[in-house]
Each structure stands twice: as structure tokens, then as C-alpha cells.
Amino acid sequence: MNNRDIVEIFDQVADMLAIRGDQIHRVLAYRRAAESIAALGRDINQVAAEGSLTEVPGIGKTLAAKIEEMLSTGRLEFHERLSQEIPVALLELLRVEGLGPKRVKQIYETLGVTTLEELSAAAREGELSKLPRMGKKTEDRLLRAIEALQRHGDERTPIGEAWPVAQALLAALREIPGVRKTAVAGSLRRMKETIGDVDLLVAADDPEPVMEHFCTLDNIESVAARGPTKSRVVLLSGLGVDLRVLPSDRWGTLLSYFSGSKDHNVRLRELALKQGLSLNEHAFTPESGEPEILCATEEEVYGTLGLPFIPPTLRENRGEIEAAIAGELPDLVQVESILGDLHVHSTWSDGRMTILEMAQAAQARGLTHIVISDHSRSLGIGNGLSIERLQAQAIDVREADRIMGPDFRVLHGTEMEIKADGTLDYPDDVLSELDFVIAGLHTSLSQPRERVTDRMLNAIWNPHVDMIAHPTGRLFPDRPGADLDMDMILESSAATGTILEVNANPSRLDLRDVHVRRAIKLGVKIAINTDAHHSDHFDFLHYGVATAQRGWAETEQIVNTWPVGRLLDTLRGSGGK
Ligand code: DGT
Ligand code: CA
Ligand code: CA
User: Do 148 and 168 sit in the same domain of this protein?
Assistant: First the structure.
């Protein structure tokens, strides 16, 4: 059994206790323990072997014994006993929006309903509205929530999973004769961190062969809809994919419409109506009865509305229309502007390639500098470096720097733990020897807001700390990250000149877009780094750049766009920052 298995069982116990109507503090104890283990950042087997389970926040003697039982027997008797009273299947009902444990219990005990399908049938037959304290209105609302849950599930796909799938599908579609253009649209083109479904567009004169190919791909679970220009399939992975095919002279309106967001489109249609035009995916249609205006490019769509092109990453109706009208769209950071990666691992800690291999791979991608920042001593699971090993590593870094020649710099840094008690993992005199100091949270992420925020502030105010890595520590899909007081974090970073990272690993994307936006407004310096543990990970960069763009990040405020000399001058100029 691993951390996740135990988290799942504890979560189920908490849900079963809640449905049974146990005391809330008992429910919360299991919930807290699950969170704590999810955020542990260490293998629970190892912690148990050391005999230090009770040092994990939220784990007392009783829960430690339960964990040991699971680790040694692979099961938990208490869980099995509970599940005879409350079937595990019933827990699925808690996923329906608006359905709490009390209601689930009532529905189970009076109607014998245990699955979503049975619940849906009961709602359709009007059985639910007959229950006490449950009217027709609640029943309708629940039915809609059940249908939404059945249609989409409640989990969106992380962009890092959806993106490669979409690229592979497009590559296959491009092979079909008669296909002129292909694109991703929807939230994937806007590079949202999670994706509801993938939207693909094709320009072709004859849609039929495209549809035929698309609906007979081998990794399809089902074809949900098939029309002459529009189809939808569900892949074996559960990911839904919509495809639309139109002739290429309508490409601009097609791409604009299906790129969304819906709210952005609503604003565009309003602007069109003011000019007496109705706008849809096919064309602008003048109300006067004059012929349609076709747009082959999105530039023409925006141009017809009197606007400059608005990049897809801004299209969320968060002020981009107003900025476009005023001629004040941000000078967004681009992948090509990134010169350095300030967060790179090597075999010295948990990376899989040597310092030199990472430097060469970075140079091959057009970068001019990297910071080698391996884990610090207290991160056992990351093979963190003792002070002696950190100092020995300096020699290896300098050697790689020499081999790389004058056009590429390899800098020596660390990704240092901010420990659970808020202290830093290396003393100041060790830090002062390094070119670049990163501090980050990997453990005890579920501490209360005030405590975890204080921990982070302690690092931000340390004069040797140059950058905070992936500030909240969240991981898609199920580690929510620390409950930081972001206002305090952002203000203190601005005040101290501390750089905040947008971690480009698609399971992190942390800072997230909305926090980038606030950081940019406050003048906080931002870095976009891949946190590469292998040379392939340098390819994550575009996810981080897109996240920064979604936060309206301008090139100037992104420190990786600065030549290395400017970066080092700035760090030295501010007393270590
Ligand atoms: P998702 O899939 O939940 O991550 O988000 P989107 O933005 O990809 O949404 P989706 O797949 O439902 O639709 C793709 C785009 O198509 C959406 O961004 C805008 C456009 N669209 C879809 N339905 C409507 C609609 O009812 N009105 C308008 N104006 N646009 C729509
Ligand atoms: Ca979509
Ligand atoms: Ca869609």
C-alpha cells in the first residue's frame, strides 16, 4: 500500500462516518489524516519503518495503528466493518452537487438507492420529491446535477494529459487528403490548467473523409454523435473530443467561435450587433440583408470589429476586450523570449541526468543559462544534498560551466526546503556561497493558513532567498496545495524583490494564472521554470509561458527573459536578491 491507497481508505472512512451520522470531530480526524498523508511528500512506508508516524500532523496513536494495520495486512478491518453498514458505492452519491451526507442517508434508508443510476431513476420517477423536506424543485435540481455528473464526471483533465493527445489526433487528421488546416480550439487553445473536453477544428472542402477517419480511430470508446460537419467521440481514456469541419474560407470565424471562452464570444457578438452584424461560427451576417462577410483568419474577425488580434490565452472576458479597445493589450511573454531556466535538477538529487547533460539539452533548446538547483538535506525522498555534498557539487557545476564554453552559463543553486517549523534547511553562510537560492515547500502543506503562510514569509524575508518555487505546492489532480494567504505572499515578495516561480510542469502550474495576474499588478518579479528532472522536461516550458500569459505577464517582468548578466547584477544589487 502507498500514500494514495491510505488516503483513499481514510477518505472513505470519513465519508461513511459522515453518512452514518457520527460526531463531526471523528469525521474530521480521518479527513485531516487523509489530507496530511496526501501532502506528506514522503513514502508512508518509510515513515512507518522509522517509527515516526505519530509525527505526521493529524496522526495520533489510534490512526498510526490503523496505518500500520493497512501497511502490514493490505486492509483495514474498521473500513470493512463500516462498509457492511454503508455500502462503498453509496459514497459516489456525495459527488452530486447539493447532496450532503444526511440526504444520502435518508435516500438510502427510505428508497434503498445505492448507485447514481438508481438515484437518477428515483428522481425521474418523482420518488425523491415524496421524501420529507424534499420538494419538486430540489428533485429537479438534483436530477440536473446527476445528469451533469453522469455526462462529464466531476473531474476535468489536466492540460498535461490532454495536450499530447490532441496533438497526436491533429497529426493524424493532417494526413488525410484534402485537409488544409487543423487546430485545437476551446479551453485547450486558451491553455486552461484543466480541460473539460478537447475541441478540434479542420478546414477541408469535403468533410466526409475527415469524419470517417475521426469516427473510426482505434483509441475510441464510443462515437457519441456523428453528423456531416460535426462529430463527438469519447476516447478510451474517457476524454471527450469534439471535431468540426468547415471550408477554409470560413476558418477565422470557426476558430474564433470554438476557441471561446463563451463569455469572450458573448462580448464579441455584442460588439458585432452594434455594427448591425450578427456573428456565428460561419460568418458575420449583416442585418441589412447584404451578403455575408467571410473571415479566413481570426485577425479578420477582430479587424471587422475594429479590434487588434487578442491572443487566445487572454480570452476569458477578464478585461481583454476593454484593453483591446483602448490599445492596451499586454506585451505577453513568449516561449522564444525565455533565455534561461532557473530551476533544474541533476543526478546529484532526484534528477535523472548529469549537470552537463542538462546544460547541453538546455543549450540545444536555445537557452543561454540554467541554474542547477537540487534538493536540500531534509528532503529524504528527493535524495537531498548534505552541506558537504552541496559544496562538492559546486566543483561539478563549475566544471560543466567550463566545458559549456563562454556562450552558456551553468549556475549553482539549491531548491531548499522550508521546513515544517518554518526554518530553512541550510544556514546563511552556506547559502551565501551559491549563485541562486530557491526556497520551496514540499512537506506539511496542510498546515493551517496562518502557520504555513508564516513559514513562507520567513523564507521570503530571508535576504539569501532569491526565488520561491511552485508557491502552493499543489499537484494535479488531487493535491490541493498549501492554503497560503496569497495577498501577504505577493506583497512581501514585491517588498523584498523575491522572485515567484510559475512552475511549468503541467501537474503544477503554480503560481496559477489568477495569482500571476495579481503578482504582475504588484510588480512582483516572476520566473517561468520547468523544474526539469530529465532533459525531456524542458519541453514543459510552453505550459508555464501560457499560464503566465493567462495572468497577463509582460516580457519585462519575467526574469528568465533577461540576459544572465542582468539577472546576476540584479541579484547582487539587492543584497543577495
Ligand atoms: P471546457 O471544455 O469545459 O474546458 O471549456 P471550453 O471553453 O472548451 O468549452 P466547450 O468545449 O463547451 O466549447 C468550446 C467552445 O465553443 C467554447 O469555448 C465557446 C464555444 N461555444 C460552445 N458553446 C457555446 C455557446 O453556447 N455559446 C457560445 N457563444 N459559444 C459556445
Ligand atoms: Ca472544450
Ligand atoms: Ca466541446
Answer: no
